[in-house]
Amino acid sequence: MGDLLKGISNFRGAVFPNYQALYQKLAQEGQQPHALMISCADSRVLPETITQSGPGELFVCRNAGNIVPPFSTANGGVSSAIEYAVVALAVRDIIVCGHSDCGAMKGLCRPDLLKSMPNVAAWLKHGYAAHSIVCQAYPADLPERQKIRAIAMENVIVQLDHLRTHPSVAAKLATNDVTLHGWFFDIETGEVEVYDGSAARFTKIREDGPLPAAVTGRNRPQVAAAIAAE
């Protein structure tokens, strides 16, 4: 806790003064973020740092496994954040960002790890499809590290599918007022791979290349082959 308090002191004394005018503007005029980013709560994954976003630029929703529960009548924090971002803030882009070495994906592979965490186990049911896809469509002898990576990538696509079930998102998709994006962050290398809807695979971002196509379809064999080839 002492380090956190020191951090607050440093923010107030050395960082905030440089952004004071911006914070005052945001306080008076409200926020207008460009995008909603749904990412994992993993402490190694920092959306604002990865995207180099400043105050007011990115609306972030974090949870274990970057999960998007399918829409239901039951109220939930993730569903509420999505609805608020789309309806109240009118974000134009929604990003689901998975990452390497994800503990939630390890839990999907080894349910025994979750025996003492019933709430986590119940939450990860929203990622079962990703685990099932990898078990059925990927090579059976895939090493564990690659298997977890594959599940994390497939989980991004599964959660994008879940996003489409939310009425606020579905309506904006129908009028082309929102675009869905799937990202995968490699903690060790700092690389961010983006899901290309036309090629149905994750591809590394190239500064001098075209942006990957927006998410449209799914082609399991191509995705599986890309993972297996690594």
UniProtKB/TrEMBL annotation:
PROSITE patterns per the UniProt record, alphabetical: PROK_CO2_ANHYDRASE_1, PROK_CO2_ANHYDRASE_2
GO biological process: carbon utilization
Residues given in the record as Zn(2+) binding sites: 40, 42, 99, 102
Lineage: superkingdom: Bacteria
Entry similarity comment: Belongs to the beta-class carbonic anhydrase family.
Function text: Reversible hydration of carbon dioxide.
Name of the protein described by the UniProt record: Carbonic anhydrase
